[in-house]
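Subject: design request, 1065 residues
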């Protein structure tokens, strides 16, 4: 409810008009009222912005509602009544009559402070009314009877005066501020008058103390502190917090619990902890305590029957001790309560039946610092750090050794791959030779067979002719031209002779009596080609030479042709794949397919994806990856140096900056000009480090500098007058073929490093290329991917024969129907279930991660540059006799030759593997090709791990459901549930650790109320992280705040402590 002033105080221009009398007001006046309401209600910026956005009708309704509300009493009404209770001149009878309604007045004041607008509260606290001073004064007056032992007045005046002085000091708060009116009277008046005055005041206080005035006063102060303005005034007041702390002496346990809750809330506000400790210092002196918090502990021990007070007290102790940042100070506060017997008492109360108190006690014990344990932990930590340092050093050595072994292994693998590559070449040559020889052998066999058949025919004809001649049927005679003629004998015979050479013109079947029926009809060769007739009996034909058997195969037979592709017959032999019909609609796998004419000679020419489909459970696959019925198909897809001053008589011919930089470079060599030039002429790398030579390369003399130096020399001017840098440049420029010499020195100095740098990169390319190409398991994995991709895409895009390797990255983009599994997860699952031998396919892919970081183009360029550098040195050796260069060439020639061979082998191996996978050499360098496999392997391993986690979660859920079903039928469950509530609450408090620092509250509007009641912005509703000293790792500790009635709630306050200081309790 917000306070709205009367019309005469309104900001409207015409105050005589009552806003309730009509429905219409001018726009400006309406906005003026709204602005006034905004300021009076103390709205936060977001609420004020919302109020300004209301339309005019809603604003008008708000104005009318506010006009209906009027504050019952202005602030000065309550202040006057409170001052009347404090008036020492009032008679006893009159005071009794007035004090009857003091509690009611205070309750109305508390409601007004809590519900009225901020302007009312400010008016109550302004300099004119000084409401806070009056309220604190009344609080002090209301509890002075409790502070003093009234019965001690009968024992003597001296003891009473001492106690009166102590009570007076409680009002003055040891700050020597202005004293109360009756205290000033106590100082100025005579001894007897003081006694009478104090006696009367204490008697009046005794009447007040029997009521709830102290409790309601604390409620009023709490309402004031809920506003930022009021909180700041209370915190800066000389006596307010001290009087609140002194209210712990009240006999009402509910009041003491309220005081402790308010003080605990102040502890959590910035700067509040110091003020609370100062108030208890004052409490100690006023109440004559030997130790701080002594009376608080007495109350804690004596109120065993009041659980609410004990919970509030334990909550306050927990916050006071464990809400400070300084660890040493926290231990100090903890020790204060230990000396007062808190630890022993908590041990006694630890098994209390109250869950709230038990949680508070456990929270304190969880936060306790065991200094002895900390010392042991520190010693253990130091020993552990030494051990860690030792292990790190050992790990460094092991890492270096591992790197050496890895390089050696990679070199051996590369050598083996090079040998394998050479053997493959030799094998290919042998195969070609074998095929050529085999063709020739087959041709020769066919020719021999044809010759043998012809010879046999000739032999049979000659034999028959001889038989006919012996029978007298024919006669053979030689003609003049040398041919043999056949002359038939008999009456019906033809008189003319038939030459033997024309016998082939006759059909043996038509020659009467010459050829037996059923004989063959071969053609006779010409007479000139026929062998001479053998003498009878004719000898058998000579046996033919045996044909040697074909050589054994030189290589294992090629794999069987797939049903889709018949190998070695070209594109025309590729069988068109049939479309696959799926039961459900599946998402599209957006791979980049290879054309049918691109798969010849690639890995996809050797795999059979249709065979894989026959082995897989495709119904399960469709059930996992089917698209949702209600949705469309988703297509997933150089520090400056101070230069020494030159002498005035030195001549400088070079540019100033160049001369300065040259001077810096020359100082690095720490040699004279003559020594440097001599070392360059002799190619002496022992005298000149390579780094220095590379620096000197930047100072090769230009033509202009040479011209100026030569001019200076022609003028025969003394060289000692030149600056040191100019003199060096003069001698430096006189070296013959300076640029060539410098290049040679740089080349020689860096040669070994370049070879050592390039060799592992080439070995990585060779080893990775060979392992990827020769991996049978990788081939099977691609076969599975091709099969599943064709199954998903067949109905929409048709089957393909291969795909680009970049499509492997898209396996994670194709997800199942419930979006919990990707295609790669499914592949990992079926590999584990049906093809377990392929689960570690990545073990066959060696050094792909190292090859992925190699720029082969740059490496080959560097190797060519090394070859050019070596040619330059050879020309230098041929022209000039340099023993240093000759020794270098002799020692390094073999290394360079091996490096060049490795470079050629690496390039060839990489080209082969790229072509083998159907990729383009122009667009697929090693930095693109090998990372595909690196990412695929990593994603596959992650998929395996996630599949295992999902399986464990499903098993845990299944076991949990079974356990819950079993518990429902277990009669002991309900009894155990109540027993475990406390442990579950503590465990929950410990789990809620979210922040890394203790939130410090600012004294803003509503802060105190939020802290105490657990408002929306209070960290007391959620675990609260305590502060630790700078640089310390943090651990957790818990404080639980219990709010008294009528709130009926439990709040959590968690303090963070350094992990190394945590000690189990």
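Subject: RE: design request

Done. Sequence follows.
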């Amino acid at each position: 409810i917000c306070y709205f002033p009367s019309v005469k105080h309104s900001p409207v221009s015409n105050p005589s008009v009552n806003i309730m009398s009509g429905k219409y007001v001018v726009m400006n006046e309406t906005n003026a009222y709204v602005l006034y309401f905004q300021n009076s209600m103390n709205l936060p910026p977001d609420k004020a912005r919302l109020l300004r956005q209301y339309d005019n009708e809603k604003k008008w309704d708000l104005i009318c509602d506010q006009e209906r509300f009027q504050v019952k009493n202005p602030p000065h009404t309550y202040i006057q009544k409170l001052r009347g209770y404090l008036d020492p001149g009032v008679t006893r009878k009159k005071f009794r009559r007035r004090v009857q309604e003091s509690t009611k007045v205070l309750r109305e004041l508390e409601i007004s402070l809590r519900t009225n607008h901020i302007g009312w509260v400010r008016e109550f606290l302004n300099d004119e009314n000084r409401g806070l001073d009056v309220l604190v004064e009344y609080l002090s007056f209301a509890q002075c009877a409790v502070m003093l032992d009234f019965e001690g007045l009968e024992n003597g005046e001296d003891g009473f005066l001492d106690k009166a002085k102590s009570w007076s000091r409680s009002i003055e708060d040891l700050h020597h501020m202005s004293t109360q009116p009756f205290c000033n009277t106590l100082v100025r008046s005579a001894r007897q008058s003081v006694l009478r005055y104090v006696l009367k005041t204490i008697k009046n206080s005794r009447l007040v103390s029997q009521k709830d005035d102290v409790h309601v006063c604390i409620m009023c102060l709490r309402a004031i502190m809920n506003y930022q303005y009021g909180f700041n005034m209370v915190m800066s007041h000389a006596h307010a917090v001290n009087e609140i702390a002194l209210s712990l002496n009240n006999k009402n346990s509910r009041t003491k619990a309220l005081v402790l809750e308010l003080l605990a809330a102040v502890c959590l506000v910035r700067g509040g902890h110091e003020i609370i400790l100062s108030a208890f210092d004052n409490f100690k002196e006023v109440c004559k305590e030997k130790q701080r918090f002594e009376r608080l502990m007495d109350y804690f021990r004596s109120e065993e029957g009041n659980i609410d007070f004990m919970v509030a007290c334990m909550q306050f102790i927990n916050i006071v001790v464990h809400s400070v940042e300084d660890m040493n100070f926290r231990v100090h506060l903890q020790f204060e309560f230990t000396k007062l017997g808190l630890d022993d008492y908590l041990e006694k109360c630890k098994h209390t039946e109250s869950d709230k108190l038990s949680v508070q006690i456990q929270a304190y014990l969880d936060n306790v610092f065991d200094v002895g344990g900390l010392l042991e932990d520190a010693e253990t930590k130091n020993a552990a750090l030494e051990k860690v340092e030792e292990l790190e050093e050992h790990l460094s050595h092991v890492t270096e050794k591992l790197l050496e072994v890895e390089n050696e292994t990679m070199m051996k693998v590369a050598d083996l791959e090079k040998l394998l590559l050479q053997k493959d070449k030799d094998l290919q040559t042998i195969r070609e030779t074998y095929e050529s020889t085999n063709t020739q052998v087959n041709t020769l066999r066919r020719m021999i067979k044809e010759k043998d058949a012809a010879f046999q025919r000739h032999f049979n004809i000659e034999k028959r002719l001889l038989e006919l001649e012996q029978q007298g049927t024919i006669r053979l005679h030689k003609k003049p031209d040398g041919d043999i003629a056949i002359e038939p004998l008999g009456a019906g015979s033809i008189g003319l002779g038939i030459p033997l050479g024309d016998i082939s013109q006759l059909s043996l079947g038509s020659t009467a009596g010459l050829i037996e029926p059923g004989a063959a009809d071969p053609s006779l060769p010409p007479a000139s080609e026929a062998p001479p007739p053998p003498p009878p009996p004719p000898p058998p034909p000579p046996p033919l030479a045996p044909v040697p058997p074909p050589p054994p195969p030189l290589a294992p037979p090629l794999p069987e042709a797939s049903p889709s592709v018949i190998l070695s017959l070209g594109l025309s032999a590729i069988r068109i794949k049939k479309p696959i019909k799926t039961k459900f609609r599946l998402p599209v796998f957006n791979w980049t397919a290879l054309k049918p004419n691109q798969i010849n000679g690639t890995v996809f020419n050797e795999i059979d994806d249709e065979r894989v489909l026959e082995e897989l459970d495709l119904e399960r696959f469709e059930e996992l990856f089917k698209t949702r019925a209600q949705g469309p198909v988703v297509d997933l897809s150089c520090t400056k140096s101070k230069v020494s001053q030159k002498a005035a008589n030195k001549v400088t011919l070079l540019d100033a900056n160049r001369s300065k930089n040259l001077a810096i470079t020359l100082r690095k060599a720490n040699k004279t000009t003559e020594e440097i030039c001599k070392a360059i002429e002799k190619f002496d790398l022992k005298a000149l480090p390579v780094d220095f030579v590379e620096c000197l390369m930047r100072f090769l003399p230009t033509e202009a500098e040479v011209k100026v130096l030569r001019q200076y020399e022609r003028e025969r001017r003394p060289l000692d007058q030149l600056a040191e840098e100019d003199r060096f440049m003069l001698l430096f420029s006189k070296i013959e073929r300076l640029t060539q010499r410098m290049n040679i020195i740089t080349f020689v100095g860096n040669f070994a490093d370049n070879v050592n740098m390039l060799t592992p990169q080439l070995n990585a390319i060779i080893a990775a290329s060979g392992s990827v190409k020769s991996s049978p398991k990788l081939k099977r994995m691609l076969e599975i991917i091709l099969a599943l991709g064709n199954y998903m895409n067949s109905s929409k895009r048709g089957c393909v024969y291969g795909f680009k390797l970049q499509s492997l990255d898209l396996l994670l983009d194709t997800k199942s129907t419930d979006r919990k599994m990707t295609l790669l997860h499914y592949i990992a699952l079926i590999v584990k279930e049906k093809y377990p031998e392929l689960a570690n396919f990545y073990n066959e892919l060696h050094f792909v991660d190292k090859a992925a970081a190699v720029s082969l183009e740059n490496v080959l360029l560097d190797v060519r540059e090394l070859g050019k550098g070596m040619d330059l040195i050879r020309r230098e050796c041929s022209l000039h006799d340099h023993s240093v260069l000759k020794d270098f060439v002799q020692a390094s020639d073999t290394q360079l030759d091996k490096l060049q061979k490795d470079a050629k082998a690496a390039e060839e191996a990489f080209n082969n593997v790229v072509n083998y996978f159907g990729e383009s050499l122009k667009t697929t360098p090693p930095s693109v090709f090998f990372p595909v496999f690196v990412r695929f392997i990593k994603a596959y391993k992650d998929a395996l791990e996630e599949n295992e986690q999902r399986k464990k979660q499903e098993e845990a859920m299944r076991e949990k459901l079974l356990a819950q079903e079993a518990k429902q039928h277990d009669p002991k469950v309900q009894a155990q549930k109540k027993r475990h509530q406390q442990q579950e609450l503590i465990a929950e408090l410990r789990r809620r650790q979210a922040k890394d620092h203790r939130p410090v509250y600012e004294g803003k509007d509503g802060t105190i109320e939020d802290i105490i009641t657990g408002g929306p912005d209070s960290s007391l509703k959620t675990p609260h992280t305590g502060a630790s000293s700078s640089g310390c790792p943090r651990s957790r500790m818990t404080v639980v705040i219990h709010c008294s009635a009528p709130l009926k709630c439990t709040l959590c306050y968690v303090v963070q402590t350094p992990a190394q200081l945590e000690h189990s309790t």
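The two ends are 50 Å apart (CA to CA).
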